[in-house]
Write a structure and sequence with these properties.
- This protein has 353 residues and is an all-alpha fold.
- The chain has a domain of 101 residues: Serine Threonine Protein Phosphatase 5, Tetratricopeptide repeat (Alpha Horseshoe), CATH 1.25.40.
- The radius of gyration is 27 Å and the shape is elongated.
- Keywords: ANK repeat, Repeat.
Amino acid sequence: MSLLEGDVKPDVGITDEDGFAPLHLAAVGGLTEVVQALLDAGADKDKAHKDGFTPLHFAADWGHTAVAQALLAAGADTDKADKGGSTPLRVAAALGHTEVVQALLDAGADKDKADNEGCTPLHSAASMSTGHKAVVVVQTLLAAGADTDKADKHGRTPLHVAASRGHPEVVQALLDAGADKDKADNGGSTPLHVAANGSYTGGMLQPLLDAGADKDKADNRGRTPLHVAAFGGYPEVVQALLDAGADKDKADNEGRTPLRTAAARRHATVVQALLDAGADQGKAGKRQRKNAASSDRQKKVEGMAAEAGQSGEGKARGKAVGSGRKRQKSDDKAAAAAASAPEAPTREKRVRK
């Protein structure tokens, strides 16, 4: 006879100093029979841990499908959120537990319920570092009708997130499901901007380019994906955009072209790629045209671009252009200001407690 079957009934709802009840611990351990016994003895199926995790959250977190099914059969709340707003479905999706995701969906879990940051289960699945797991969970959620274009509080859709993680197969799955390829976030960045802002190969951009993504769409600061890639110094991404016909001379709100951006950052390989594509070396920025001292600065940047193009070696990037010319602090500050970086999108956080 078990302890739960004796004449003296233990308190199945008692919690330890860390806020764990017996049902929480049984769910963490994947002890399905113990979970069932505790439920039969009247344990609260939705009792929250101090961080807001219910037994179903713990089962989802650890990928214990049988435990999740036992809790669901007992009527556990599929959509109860923890203190961060995460539901069990978002937890399971973030960690790639496809069977738990399916069990929760079958039980009627809200497939689009967002956490406090506005992230849905689809955002979470798209943010996984493991591409294979991510695409399986993403496809499971899409099959259930998850909203492909729901944005978080920063305006980012699941497609933005997938593009930032470097998983072209996830990007393709979202595009196949009808995701908006050109939807901009709060800063005006499209998924193509996001993909260009990472040290991935040009192949990461291909699903978006093949789907007809706007390669010259500007963000709120007038920067195109080519500006972003030029600033970051990603030659393969730059080449992929050039091969797709991106405007090599389009200026941002300050009049900076991709060439001026790359030159200011001393990315010799990118400078060479832009020069080979016929980028205009003489196109000046708004600030440079207004500044009386811009002539020397422009010659400096153009000279460095030419030097980088001739040598193609990293050493050329470190040489002062024009021997004997004094390097002025004002020029250094202006060059740095002329290439303010596009911010990388915030990555999705793992929700495991």
